[in-house]
Structure formats: structure tokens, C-alpha cells
Write a structure and sequence with these properties.
Length: 140
């Protein structure tokens, strides 16, 4: 047994490999691995927690950044934020917690929300356009 092999066994053990797998990898018995890695416990990394954010605030900021791309004026933006608040309010606290800590889940939620609300916003555009046309054609 040489120091390089012992170091390899210790490294594999620290990475979380069981004794049997280490023995197979380095070509020795499981008993030998146990002897040389006694006292070495796996140091598994806990996945990094994402920072918790306020879901409404982050989603509103995203909408405000995308206003031009979405073709939103001030009234549309106001309607969208009100709809977002209505959508978030009845949600289960666990779902809100998930959205608050998982950026990908938050992006998926926002995309789904926009897909659902944009037809309504477009309808409001048409109504305002028609109101403007009718108002312009009516003599004073």
C-alpha cells in the first residue's frame, strides 16, 4: 500500500463513496479500505439555498423591465400588476415559499401568468382603440 493509494481512498470516501465501491475502484479489499479510511466520514455538500425573495416584487420588476417588449402602457401595466396580485393572493403558502426560493420556478410561473393575462390586455387595447375611434367621430 502506498501513500498515493491511501490518499485516493480518503478522497473517494470524502466524496461519499461507500467502502465497497472504493475497493472496486482502487483494486483492493473492502476491509483494507475500511482500515485506511477509518475516521474519514463523507463530507457531502448540501445544495446551496437560493436567497428568499418577495415573489410579487420580483415578478413586478420583471414585468416593468419587459414593458416595452410586451407593448404595455401605464394602464396595461397597472392591470397586469393587479392581476398578478389576484393570482398570488389565494396561492398555497408552500407554493409561495417555493416561488420565493426557486428562480426557475418563479420564471416558469411568470411565463405562465403572462401567457394567461396577455390576451386580456390585448382585448383592453382593442376596446380603448375602438373607444378612441368612436369618441373622435362623434361631433361635439
Amino acid at each position: 500500500m502506498n501513500q498515493g493509494l491511501v490518499n485516493r481512498m480518503v478522497t473517494l470516501r470524502l466524496e461519499g463513496f461507500p467502502h465497497r465501491e472504493i475497493a472496486e475502484k482502487v483494486g483492493c479489499s473492502e476491509r483494507t479500505v475500511r482500515r485506511y479510511t477509518r475516521g474519514v466520514t463523507p463530507q457531502l455538500e448540501v445544495p446551496r439555498q437560493h436567497e428568499r425573495v418577495d415573489v410579487l416584487t420580483v415578478c413586478v420588476q420583471s414585468i416593468l423591465r419587459a414593458r416595452t417588449q410586451l407593448g404595455l402602457d401605464t394602464r396595461d401595466t397597472d392591470q397586469m400588476i393587479k392581476a398578478l396580485r389576484k393570482t398570488l393572493q389565494p396561492m398555497d403558502p408552500l407554493v409561495i415559499d417555493w416561488l420565493a426560493t426557486d428562480p426557475q420556478a418563479r420564471r416558469d410561473f411568470l411565463h405562465e401568468f403572462l401567457r394567461d393575462v396577455m390576451p386580456h390586455i390585448n382585448d383592453l387595447h382593442h376596446v380603448r382603440r375602438i373607444q378612441a375611434e368612436i369618441g373622435a367621430s362623434v361631433p361635439s
